[in-house]
Amino acid sequence: MNQLIKRMANIKKECPTCTGVGTIGCKCNENDEVTCPNCEGKGVVSRRVTTSQKVEMPCDSPQCQKGKVPCGVCNGTGVTLQDTPCSACHGSGKLDCPVCGGLGRVERVKQESWIAHDTCHICNGRGVVECYLCHGTKIRVCPDCKGKGTVLNTGKIAAICILVVLLLAMPALFIAVAGISLGGCVFMLQKERRMAQENEAE
């Protein structure tokens, strides 16, 4: 039992990446260089550039003609139903466009964006940097166990969790079974008592 508890308590296992050593061979090239982590070996980094500027353009109102739109009072005729000059447009049949104010042109914000490519400031466009993992030793700390030589045994941890859940659930399970059994016994006793009373009555 004690051995089982000790085995369960040891939730670590030998690191499969470094086989327990804590270090692995570095994959840098013969010049002790690795791919630049900033530009991922491209030598350039990308950034989005966005500019906004106001530009003057023709009025985009569909009814606007050189800053004028048909009068809505007289429907562009210039006269009323009584054949008198329209007081809104003074007989011209047209009014200043409400969008451009009669100018025929409006200012709009024009936005442009593009991708700019800048030389990587980490590797100066080379795409490689001096190996920061082994610093020229060709041996680096194991990335999985961080040099400890052991990693968590996830399978054992899962088994322990399941065992704990079962142990915690056992009392509740026993209580449930006992309750069901007791209820069944009470039901059977009441049934027998009813049958005995019916037999006596006969």
Defining key terms:
single chain; 202 residues; alpha+beta; two-stranded antiparallel ribbon; 10 strands
Lay out the secondary structure.
Layout: H1 2-9, E1 12-14, E2 23-25, E3 33-35, E4 44-58, E5 68-70, E6 94-96, E7 105-119, E8 128-130, E9 139-141, E10 150-152, H2 154-201
Antiparallel strand pairs: 1-10, 2-9, 3-8, 4-7, 5-6
Structure description:
The protein has 2 helices and 10 strands; from the N terminus they run αββββββββββα. It is α+β, with helices and mostly antiparallel strands. The protein has a two-stranded antiparallel sheet. The mean pLDDT is 83. Helix content is 28%, strand content 27%.
Summed up:
The protein has helices spanning 2-9, 154-201, and strands spanning 12-14, 23-25, 33-35, 44-58, 68-70, 94-96, 105-119, 128-130, 139-141, 150-152. It has 202 residues and is an alpha+beta fold.
Total of helices: 2
> Considering DSSP H and I runs of 4 or more, what fraction of the residues is helical?
25-40%
Gross morphology is flat
Give a quick account of the main beta sheet: strands, pairing sense, barrel closure: 2 strands, antiparallel
Rg, Cα atoms, Å: 44 Å
Based on secondary structure, the structural category is alpha+beta
Write out the strand line-up for the largest beta sheet, numbering strands in chain order: 1-10
**Count of strand segments:** 10
- Secondary-structure element order, N to C: HEEEEEEEEEEH
- The percent range for strand residues is 25-35%
Average pLDDT number = 83
Measure the end-to-end span.
63 Å
Low-confidence stretches: none
